[in-house]
Amino acid sequence: MDPFYGPGRNQLFVPGPVNIPEPVLQAMNRNNEDYRAPPVPALTKKLLADVPKIFKSTTGTPFLFPTTGTGAWESALTNTLSPRDRIISFEMGQFSLLWIDQMKRLNFDVDVVHCEWGTGVDLEILRTKLEADKEHKVKAICCVHNETATGVTNNLAAIRTVIDDCMHPALFLVDGVSSVCAIDFRMDEWGVDVALTGSQKALSLPTGLGIVCASPKALEATKTAKSLRVFFDWNDYLKFYKLGTYWPYTPSIQLLYGLRTALDLIFLEGLDNVIARHTRLGRATRLAVEAWGLKNCTQREEWYSDTVTAVVIPPYIDSTEIVKRAWKRYNLSLGLGLNKVAGKVFRIGHLGNLNELQLLGCLSGVEMVLKDIGYPVKLGSGVAAAAAYLQMTTPLIASRV
Ligand SMILES: Cc1ncc(COP(=O)(O)O)c(C=O)c1O
């Protein structure tokens, strides 16, 4: 028995891991199987055919690693690059910072562009760097699409345009951990060479799958990439793909069945409808924040994230207390401020298998906590602003029309 059990459902509004929908829980509630007997390869074959769709790719090759987003990062880097290769990357929050740290520890030569937390990729800096790189020493541009620590979404299409304008051959590696299946992501159209995500975010699965999709150019790069790699080597997977057995080591059977159902749910709703739902939930959250008289950590509208909102609170309040109290009093889980923004922001995750009424429950909880903690909020103000917008915009449920 959980000694911290609270009545009712926990309102899980951290920006991942997120709620797992009931059909996925049921699909995963099963015994282990012999993964060499026909059902698992048949299941895998179909999964590999469907996974590129979440990245909007028809040319990408998918890999399902038993890992997390961090492992997917390592897989992207080590399969495409060699030690001391130069990478341009942007540090704008805790997750871009951690990826850069990994790049350094893997012995790449990282040209780090430090951005103020709450801002996104500065396209002019990227342009200047690429224009100056006449010898094409830069081998990769690495970008976190959605910086989960600050709620900043970068414009991948604009980054691709800069790379193309400079006629630069660098690979474009993108962390889509808190964007894929929630925010528009077009791998082929935007010339993303490696796209990656983790199962515990918008796919609404347990943690444990690092999902990577490699473009033909990225696959070509593996042939000369000299980075040491063993567990994450794409070639081991490709060998087993050819054999039709798919797995170089034991897969998590339960996660594969869960992924099947998670994808089925997304396709049933329609990926673009899923993205539109996140657009609505993101906007509704921002309207509530505005109604509370609080600021979004994200400095410009062009970077607003539809999966996470980092809310800046006045300096006389410690945001950690908001998160603690929400959990202790209302059974509401909010995201802490991380690193540079610790104590200054709290985060509302609004991603995954989530609907409008759930979000309103969370917003009403946040209002009560703000009042508890001494912030002068009018109860109902944020909920009213969000509800007014959602009432106007929420469509009929696609499967019930
Ligand atoms: C944008 C982003 N990238 C990478 C990660 C790391 O993923 P994981 O914790 O699954 O290793 C996270 C985790 O929250 C994230 O938000």
UniProtKB/TrEMBL annotation:
Drop me one GO molecular function for this one. alanine-glyoxylate transaminase activity
Give all residue intervals belonging to the Aminotransferase class V domain.
64-291
Pfam families from the xrefs? Answer: Aminotran_5
Query: Which named protein is this?
Result: alanine--glyoxylate transaminase
Its required cofactor(s), as named, are: pyridoxal 5'-phosphate
Q: Is Glycoprotein given among the entry's keywords?
A: no
Task: List its EC numbers.
Answer: 2.6.1.44
**Which family does the entry's similarity section mention?**
Belongs to the class-V pyridoxal-phosphate-dependent aminotransferase family.
Residues with the N6-(pyridoxal phosphate)lysine modification: 201
A Gene Ontology CC term for this entry?
A: peroxisome
Quick one: which residues bind substrate? 347
InterPro entries in the record: Aminotrans_V_dom (IPR000192), Aminotrans_V_PyrdxlP_BS (IPR020578), PyrdxlP-dep_Trfase (IPR015424), PyrdxlP-dep_Trfase_major (IPR015421), PyrdxlP-dep_Trfase_small (IPR015422), SP_NH2Trfase/AEP_transaminase (IPR024169)
Organism domain of life? Eukaryota
Keyword set, alphabetical order: Aminotransferase, Pyridoxal phosphate, Transferase
What organism is the protein native to? Picea sitchensis (Sitka spruce)
> Which GO BP terms sit in this record?
glycine biosynthetic process, by transamination of glyoxylate
